[in-house]
Amino acid sequence: MKIALLTSSRADYGIYRPLIQKLKADSFFDLKIIAFGTHLSHFHAYTLQEIEKDGFEVAEKIESLVLGDSPESLSTAMGLTQIKFASLWEKLRQEIDLIFCLGDRYEMLAAVLASVPFQIPVAHLHGGETTLGAIDNVFRHTLSLIATYHFVSTEPYAQKVAEIIGKNEHIYHVGALSLDNLHTLELLSTKEFQEKYNIDIEKPTILFTFHPETVGFEKNKQYVLEIISSLENLIQDYQIVLTMPNADTAGNMIRENLINFAKKYEKAFIIESFGTLGYFSCLKYCSFVLGNSSSGIVEAASFGKYVLNLGDRQKGRAAGENVIHLPISQTAILETASKINSFPKLSKNNMYGQGNTADKIIEILRKIKI
């Protein structure tokens, strides 16, 4: 089976990684990795190098990112991505049996939309999920409509995909692929983490990620004020590791505020791109997670970590007992953070699976008749 796998960012590559390993090791599959989006942006740490460092060859590199973060910039990037992928699919149409896509990004949708006239079958990971605070909801559900094969992370999401596409055919509940990394990665020790990032992770640490809310994106200016005020209080008791936001509407504004905050405090550390190994290692040792990243919803439970999930970006996603939903309010954040050390110890049970998703996908792919 000849597969073209689309990866547009550090986030989806970290999820794909266990599946890529399995596909490359299996002679039944011929894999082409197609990298685009922020992977090729030096402004976003040129994360293409993370793929290559893992020993994977990137077959195609498509530059289509527009660095602005206004609605017009994102819409322009979508159009440019679709144009460039039209040429790519024309070139590859006889060389691939299946396109693999993941998630809900605008650039991912544009790349897949360009394939529709060529009638190349599409497999979609993480369909059926809901994020009411992000326009990604539209992109994710549209990808489900385009796709023929659906690999979903929970049974309710399988039911949602069935509602969207109007049938139950080729919908597979396999769990969250990113959790396979827990079995394939040897996480860094605290000493190794300090040597690599110059951060003593044995100290009380908050792992922070905040992406823009792209529904009502003009509210992000007020959100940032609340967040920075909260961080300035929290840094008295914790060091804070700040990972940078996605390339979304108002993302640059958030980025600039976080960088300015970090310049004022020795206990604040900016990480442009951890990669899966660094991120999971930080997740293992941190005191708790703060922000609105999907990793807080999906992966953090496997580490037994509490997550203070802010605002509506992840609203609608199924979440475990470790996730505490809060408004983007300094009062709410500080009140909850002040009590977090007294909360009961969590189990490491995770509703999103136990880390055997790649094997399930491989087994299904071998039975598909294309």
What this model shows, in words?
- With 370 residues, this protein is an alpha/beta fold.
- The chain has two domains: 187 residues, Rossmann fold (3-Layer(aba) Sandwich), CATH 3.40.50.2000; 153 residues, Glycogen Phosphorylase B (Rossmann fold, 3-Layer(aba) Sandwich), CATH 3.40.50.
- 41% of the residues lie in helices and 16% in strands.
- The chain has 14 helices and 13 strands.
- It has a seven-stranded parallel sheet with strand order 3-2-1-4-5-6-7, sandwiched between helices.
- The mean pLDDT is 93.
- CATH top level class name of the largest domain: Alpha Beta
Please state the second-level CATH architecture of the largest domain.
Answer: 3-Layer(aba) Sandwich
CATH superfamily of the largest domain, by name, is Glycogen Phosphorylase B
Mean pLDDT: 93
Low-confidence parts lasting 5 or more residues at pLDDT below 50? none
Total number of β-strand segments? 13
> β content, as a range?
15-25%
Instruction: Give a short account of the largest sheet.
Output: 7 strands, parallel
Count of individual domains:
2
Structure in a nutshell:
This protein has 370 residues and is α/β, with parallel strands linked by helices. The protein contains 14 helices and 13 strands.
Which descriptors apply to this entry?
single chain; 370 residues; alpha/beta; Rossmann fold; 2 domains; six-stranded parallel β-sheet; globular
